[in-house]
Design brief:
The complex is a heterodimer of chains A (1137) and B (167).
Chain A (H helix, E strand, L loop, with lengths): L6 E7 L12 E2 L5 E6 L27 E5 L11 E2 L21 H10 L6 E6 L4 E9 L16 E3 L1 E3 L5 E6 L8 E10 L2 E4 L3 E3 L5 E2 L4 E7 L4 E7 L8 E10 L4 E8 L3 E6 L5 E10 L13 E4 L3 E4 L2 E5 L4 E9 L2 E2 L5 E5 L3 E2 L5 E3 L5 E5 L14 E7 L2 E2 L4 E6 L6 E4 L6 E6 L10 E8 L15 E3 L1 E3 L4 E6 L8 E9 L2 E4 L3 E3 L11 E7 L6 E6 L8 E9 L7 E5 L6 E4 L8 E9 L13 E2 L14 E6 L7 E7 L4 H4 L5 E8 L3 E8 L3 E6 L3 E9 L10 E5 L8 E10 L2 E8 L6 E10 L7 E6 L4 E5 L8 E9 L7 E3 L6 H42 L21 H12 L2 H5 L2 H4 L11 H4 L18 E3 L17 H6 L10 E4 L4 H16 L4 H17 E3 L6 H4 L7 H11 L5 H4 L6 H6 L17 H4 ...
Parallel strand pairs in A: 2-13, 23-32
Antiparallel strand pairs in A: 1-3, 3-4, 5-14, 6-10, 7-8, 7-11, 9-10, 11-12, 11-13, 15-16, 16-19, 17-18, 17-20, 20-21, 22-24, 24-25, 24-29, 26-27, 26-30, 28-29, 30-31, 30-32, 33-34, 34-38, 35-36, 35-39, 37-38, 39-40, 39-41, 42-43, 43-46, 44-45, 44-47, 47-48, 49-50, 50-53, 51-52, 51-54, 54-55, 56-57, ...
Helix pairs in contact in A: 4-18, 9-10
Chain B lengths: L1 H20 L2 H21 L1 H4 L22 H17 L3 H23 L16 H7 L1 H24 L5
Helix pairs in contact in B: 1-5, 2-5, 2-7, 4-5, 4-7
Classes of the chains: A alpha+beta (1137), B mainly alpha (167).
Chain lengths: 1137, 167
């Protein structure tokens, strides 16, 4: 209610401002002032109203009804980076005295955004006022004369709002340009129908700016181990700032707090301690002049661990040098830096030369020329450890080394409007999580020698291609501007830039290929000419590259360079003028800059006539008609010209005739290859010309038909040698003559077939010639050689068959010279062998022949001089027919027979018919072969008479031969050994012989061994006890496999021996089984028991088994001829039957 | 005066640094080549070939007429006008030509600096103040005439460069 009365406004300032008449306003700063409102009808003595201002605002001494308090300090409304002022206009009452209203931060930020528009605002607040008006005016900075109180209409009303609590705020826009201007304003307060008006207030907005708090507060450890607190100034501050830093350190050792005011944006606060916690706050204020402190930044805490790495992480590029520092605290005690060692990845100790002591507690390690980090699993960094001797803390520093050497290559298109740059996308795992971007800076002209990363750059969008490359397109381009480009790798720890490269689009031009490329073989010149049109761009001189080759699937290109930039064609020499060539052209700047263009589209030549034919065709003649007559038909034959000779086609052939009588005339024969004319004159010369579209051939062959020359014979000899079915060599010998020999014509034909004569031209200097044709060896050919003289065709030399090859003859003779001596030698050797064999046989035959006086069967026989063996055997067989004579020796073997029961026919009748066939001893091999009687009948020494009966059953002997292995190399001794061993077996009963046999058996034990075929060794082993077997086995093992057939050891008759152990022929003195007696034991006689009972009963005492081992006493019967064998068969069969 | 000399030196410094790196002969060659390139580019724009040289187009006086250019500075001024006109043209082809003109002006400045006669940078001309309205009304005429006259001017410049033009 008091307010509704008259009141006066009294201004109370906390400090006194001088008020002059020239400046009637009250300057206010960021200090509080108070308005006391008085009733409007109060005296105006105390009012200092400007002109034009309503005078109903007055102040009077001692009477205060109402007061308004306004503040411009921090207790008012807050603005961000703007002049903030608050009018606290309150009625002077106790309840309203503490009134204050806080502005909305959001509103403040809005003002911040309006700074860009150079509009500043102020807010005034009033409380407990029903309505309030704020009027402001910026006093222009003019001269003193013009300075004065503005008119009432110059004041603008600032919007004011009041809340329910009576707090009001007024927004006074302040342009940035008027921050330093004086702001005049007054307040008009209406309450209860009474209006109060303040005196003029003056304020300079820049003095009441409250900046935003600093940003980016950060703490880090410097290289020397100090703690560095850094921050950034708030943005858009119209004046320099000073900062107040409040920090605290809390560690186990000390706890301290400090505040410092610094003009910079960083502060070093001393050495950092491991295991400590640091807290810091910063606020800002205008550096010079009045100002308001900003708010404190939020508290930033920095905690150090027991091991401090600074920096804790490093991101760098390949090839760079980096360093890590370390402070190591162990058990509340800082480790001396001298004891610190460094490790990499806990696996590799870093060389001591790489780290050194910075201070007594800081160690520093430096890595030089770093290589890219090789990821280990998901870890894309190298862990650097600072260790106290053998003890390493688990914390580590991280080193990220990324290879950012990315090559950027660019290419300008042929239209010079587009430059495409490509760079590979690195696939390194260390780049996972990083982004790559091409940035560039364009200079006005050219590139610098050392491109560098410009601070102002632009990004360029690139697209990934199928080949993994990024492709960036610049279009349009500045041809002569240097584009400095690099790849920026944005890593979570920072960014790295690849080495910059500068590209001048004009220097990387890939021109369009030359156009209108044509290829032709030039007429009359015979060169391959390629012509083209220069591409429109670039305007620089160009060089060209031509490639050409014969048209086909796989063209063998040949290259040709053209360095004349103004050239539009080039000619090259080609070997074949009548072929289709393909040519392509490409270009490049002559100065070597840029790239080769693509090859142009191929151009092909067309085959046309280039020149006149190189020569006329080769031709020959066939003369028909009666030789005695003077008129004969001559048919000329020629071979069509090939392309390389006709260049490139023949339209027709023309024959030029010349006779002494008729002179020269031409005959056009078209495209034919033969022509006939009548040869009537003494000499008739013809020439065949080839004609194409260019003209007729200049070099032609002539042929003169001359009667006298037909008799000139210069070919002395002619020989034809067939090489194979497709080649024959003709050689000849020419005799010297006075005529001018031009060339030779070789003519041949198959006489057995009616085919045309084939011919060819041979140079006169050639002495032999290879004719390639299809020759049938069994056919008969005729070869003729015609000497062609300038004067005419000479007399030919003709042969009708191939010449015998002397070489072959000589080879045959040489072969004969070799073969004949061999045959003679072989004959002599054979004869000698026969003689030796004969002597041996005689010796064998007669050595053991008993005294004919004591052998009844031998009586009458002249063993000293048998006419033939047949005769001997005939005599023998005759004697065999007399049983008693044959069986007489059987008494010798009676005592050594052993009876054994034979269980089967196979057992009773040994499958193997044994015949010991002693071959001629092989001295070199040291063995004696016992062969099949059929195969070596001449060498048979013994044969059982019963054998034939066994064979009648159609069972061929299964044992082919036996082998006697001997170590002895002496032929005579061996022979003797064999003879004795064989012979002694036959007479084992005889005491001397028994001794002899026994002795010889022992000799055999060490020297020879006879075995039977088709028997297994394992069956033999249990019964062979002599030690020679081992040697034999060894010997057998030593035989080469491929010679097994020849060198196998055969075991003769051991089956029967084993099965009939009692039948083994044993000596009394030794337990050795005789290797030889098997053939001597005529056990098969048992078989004959049924068929020849009488014979058996009368002559054999067979015992219970009816069998008896029989030892033949007639070794001489072991040798028999085939004929004798047959005879024996019949005889014995007769005998058994 | 000292300040003026210093400013002049600083203004010339980028070019002088390039002069050290790039032989002046190469600059001359590049200048000629670039002129030829621009001429060819204009020739490749088909509709410029149809313009009759006998027919005179009025109302486009702001486009420099073809006349023998005597000095590098005059060349630069002429090119500046053309560049401003071409930049205003919406055709895509002329954007590249405009870029080429910028390079060409840079080369001319470099040539001038090599002759110790630095050229002042010519900005937009007042005569082109109403270019927008003209372009709106007669875009085709402006483009055709500008390109045609530019081509002639460039050919003149090419000849002048062989005569070693003055500042």
């Amino acid at each position: 209610m008091v307010c509704q009365k008259f009141c006066a406004v009294l201004l109370h300032w906390e400090f006194i401002y001088a008020v002059t008449a020239f400046n009637p306003s009250y300057p206010i700063t960021s200090w509080r002032f108070k308005l006391s409102c008085l009733p409007p009808n109060a005296t105006q003595d105390y009012l200092l109203l400007p002109a034009g201002v309503s005078g109903n605002m007055s102040a009077s001494h001692g009477y205060y009804e109402t007061s308004v308090e306004a503040t411009f300090n921090s207790s008012g409304v807050y603005f961000s980076s703007l002049p903030k002022s608050a009018f606290h206009c309150c009625f002077w009452s106790e309840q309203d005295k503490n009134c204050s209203v806080l502005a909305d931060n959001t509103e403040g930020k809005t003002f911040v955004s309006t700074i860009h528009f150079l509009v500043f605002q102020q807010i005034g607040k009033c409380c407990n006022v029903l309505s309030i008006g704020c009027y402001f005016y910026f006093q222009p900075e003019v001269s003193e004369d013009s300075a004065g109180v503005p008119q009432r209409g110059s004041f603008q009303a600032a919007p004011c709002t009041c809340d329910a609590q009576g707090c009001c705020e007024c927004l006074v826009p302040v342009p940035a340009t008027k921050l330093n201007s004086s702001l005049l304003m007054y307040l008009k307060i209406s309450s209860g129908g009474i209006t109060f008006q303040s005196p003029l207030l003056s304020v300079q907005p820049i003095n009441v700016v409250k900046p935003d708090p600093p940003v980016g507060l950060h703490m880090e450890v410097t290289d020397d181990g100090s703690l560095r607190i850094s921050w950034s100034s708030p943005t858009l501050v119209p004046f320099p700032l000073q900062y107040q830093v409040k920090y605290s350190e809390n560690s186990t050792a000390i706890t301290r707090e400090a505040e410092k005011i610094v003009p910079a944006t960083a502060l070093l606060v001393g050495s950092v301690l491991p295991g400590s916690s640091y807290k810091a706050q910063v606020r800002a204020k205008r550096l010079r002049g009045p100002g308001i402190w900003s708010d404190w930044t939020p508290t930033h805490t920095f905690t150090t661990q027991d091991v401090i790495y600074f920096p804790p992480k490093i991101l760098t590029s390949v090839g760079s040098n980096v360093s890590f520092h370390c402070i190591y605290k162990n058990e509340n005690k800082i480790v001396s830096s001298k004891k610190i060692v460094w490790w990499m990845n806990l696996a590799e100790k870093i060389s001591q030369s790489q780290y050194h002591v910075v201070s007594d507690r800081i160690s520093k390690v430096t890595f030089a020329n770093l290589n890219a980090t090789r990821p280990r699993g998901k870890f894309t960094f190298d862990a650097v450890y600072c260790c106290a001797g053998p003890e390493c803390h688990h914390r580590y520093a991280e080193l990220y080394v990324i290879d950012v050497n990315i090559n950027i290559s660019c290419e300008t298109d042929g239209h010079l409007t587009r430059m495409t740059c490509r760079w590979p996308t690195p696939a390194a795992q260390s780049l996972v999580g990083s982004t790559l971007q091409l940035r560039y800076h364009r200079s006005s002209l050219y590139c610098s020698d050392t491109p560098s990363i410009h601070p102002i750059s632009e990004p360029k969008d690139c697209r990934v291609q199928k080949d993994g490359f990024q492709e960036c397109v610049f279009q349009p381009i500045f041809l002569l501007s240097g584009y400095t480009m690099w790849i920026r790798v944005s890593h979570p720890l920072g960014s790295l830039d690849s080495p910059p490269t500068c590209v001048l689009p004009d220097s990387v031009v890939k021109p369009l290929p030359p156009s209108r490329v044509q290829a032709e073989i030039t007429v009359n010149i015979g060169l391959l000419k390629i012509s083209w049109e220069k591409p429109v761009f670039p305007e620089n001189n160009l060089q060209y590259q031509i490639r050409y080759g014969l048209n086909g699937k796989d063209i063998q290109w040949k290259m040709h360079e053209v360095y004349d930039g103004k050239s539009k064609s080039a000619s090259v020499l080609v070997p074949d003028l009548c072929a289709v060539y393909t040519a392509q052209v490409r270009c490049r700047r002559l100065d070597g800059l840029g790239y080769w263009s693509n090859w142009s589209s191929p151009a092909h030549t067309v085959i046309t006539d280039i020149k006149v034919p190189v020569r006329g065709p080769e031709f020959w003649r066939i003369i028909t008609g009666d030789i005695t007559k003077k008129e004969r038909n001559v048919t000329l034959l020629w071979k069509p010209l090939m392309k390389n000779a006709s260049l490139c086609s023949v339209r027709r052939y023309v024959i030029s005739h010349y006779t002494s009588r008729n002179g020269t005339w031409l005959e056009d024969v078209g495209n034919g290859t033969k022509s006939t004319f009548l040869w009537t004159e003494q000499a008739h010369t013809v020439t065949v010309l080839a004609v194409n579209s260019i003209g007729a051939s200049f070099a032609n062959f002539n042929l003169t038909f001359s009667w006298p020359m037909n008799k000139v014979n210069v070919v002395q000899s002619l020989s034809a040698y067939p090489i194979n079915s497709s080649c024959v060599i003709l050689s000849w010998v020419l005799s010297p003559s006075d005529y001018n020999l031009m060339y030779l014509i070789m003519e041949w034909k198959n006489l057995n077939e009616d085919e045309e004569v084939k011919w060819l031209r041979v140079p006169s200097t050639v002495k032999k010639y290879y004719i390639y044709d299809h020759f049938i060896p069994i056919e008969k050919y005729q070869f003729s050689l015609y000497p062609i003289f300038m004067e005419g065709v000479g007399k030919p030399k003709t042969i009708s068959s191939f010449t015998q090859d002397d070489t072959e003859k000589h080879q045959r003779e040489a072969g004969l010279y070799v073969i004949v001596p061999i045959i003679i030698s072989s004959s002599i050797l054979l004869l000698g062998t026969l003689l030796v064999s004969h002597q041996r046989m005689k010796k064998l035959f007669w050595e053991d022949v008993p005294n004919p006086k004591n052998c009844s069967w031998a009586q009458g026989l002249n063993f000293q001089k048998p006419e033939t063996f047949e005769h001997l055997f005939i005599k023998h067989t005759e004697s065999v027919t007399f049983g008693p004579l044959l069986l007489e020796p059987e008494t010798i073997s009676e005592d050594i027979s052993v009876d054994t029961s034979w269980r089967s026919k196979d057992e009773m009748v040994p499958a193997t018919v044994l015949s010991l066939l002693l071959r001629t001893p092989d001295i070199a091999k040291g063995f004696v072969c016992v062969g099949d009687p059929g195969n070596s009948a001449n060498f048979s020494q013994a044969e059982g008479t019963q054998l034939t009966c066994e064979d009648e059953e159609g069972r061929p002997p299964s044992v082919k031969y036996a082998t006697l292995v001997s170590k002895s190399g002496e032929t005579d001794e061996e022979q003797e050994l064999i003879n004795s061993s064989v012979s002694k077996c036959f007479s084992s009963k005889s005491s001397p012989l028994e001794e002899s046999f026994s002795r010889s058996s022992w000799e055999m034990e060490s020297q020879a061994f006879l075995v039977l075929a088709n028997q297994h060794l394992n069956r033999l082993l249990p019964h062979l006890t002599f030690s020679g077997l081992d040697e034999l086995l060894k010997l057998e093992e030593n035989f080469p496999e491929e010679n097994n057939d020849e060198k196998s050891v055969y075991y003769l008759g051991l089956t029967s021996i084993r099965k009939r152990e009692s039948d083994v022929f044993l000596t009394e003195e030794s337990s050795v089984s005789c290797p030889f007696p098997a053939h001597c034991l005529l056990t098969d006689i048992t078989v004959l028991q049924d068929s020849c009972p009488h014979f058996v009963e009368n002559n054999f005492n067979l015992g219970t088994s009816g069998r008896k081992t029989f030892v033949s006493y007639m070794p001489q019967f072991q040798t028999c001829s085939t004929q004798t064998h047959k005879i024996m068969e019949s005889k014995m069969c007769d005998l058994t039957v | 005066m000292r300040c003026g000399s210093l400013c002049q030196f600083l203004w010339l410094w980028p070019y002088l640094s390039y002069v050290h790196a790039v032989p002046i002969q190469k600059v001359q060659d590049d200048t000629k080549t670039l002129i030829k390139t621009i001429v060819t580019r204009i020739s490749d724009i088909s509709h410029t070939q149809l313009v009759s040289s006998k027919q005179r187009v009025t109302g486009l006086d702001f486009i420099p007429a073809v006349h023998p250019v005597l000095s590098l500075s005059k060349m630069d001024q002429t090119l500046a006008v053309y560049q401003q006109i071409l930049t205003s043209l919406p055709s895509r082809n002329v954007i590249q030509i405009s870029n080429d003109l910028e390079n060409l002006r840079d080369l001319l400045h470099l040539l001038a600096s090599s002759k110790n006669c630095p050229l002042p940078w010519t900005s937009g001309l007042e005569t082109l103040a109403n270019l927008g309205s003209v372009l709106e009304a007669s875009l085709y005429s402006t483009e055709v005439v500008a390109l045609s006259r530019l081509q002639g001017s460039l050919q003149d410049m090419l000849r002048q460069l062989d005569l070693s033009p003055g500042c």
